[in-house]
From TrEMBL:
Pfam families: MORN
Listed name of the protein: MORN repeat-containing protein 5
Keywords for this protein: Repeat
InterPro entries in the cross-refs: MORN (IPR003409)
Native species: Octactis speculum
Amino acid sequence: VFQDSQGRTLDYYGELRNGRANGRGLYACREGQKFMPRYTGEFRDDQMHGYGVKTWHAGEYAGNKYEGCFYEDKKHGKGRYTWNNGDVYEGLWVHGPRCG
C-alpha cells in the first residue's frame, strides 16, 4: 500500500527498494476509489516510470487503455492509446499530452 503523486492510496504488488515501488509491479485502486486505473509495468520511486500498460475500468474512461512509456507518472515517449469507442492514437507523448 502506498500513496501516488496525487495523494491517492493504492495497492501495490511488485518490487520494492528502500520501501518504495521500484522495478516491475502492478498497482490497482483501493476500495472506494472506483475511478482509479490499473497499471502494470515499471516503477521508480513510487511513480510510473519506464514501459507499462494503464487501463481504466470505471467512469467515463472505462475501457480506455494506454500502452507505452512513462516518465515521472506521465505518458512520455512512444505509446499507443486506445479509446473505448475503438479510436487509436499511436505516436509520441511529452510529459502527459500527445504530440500529434
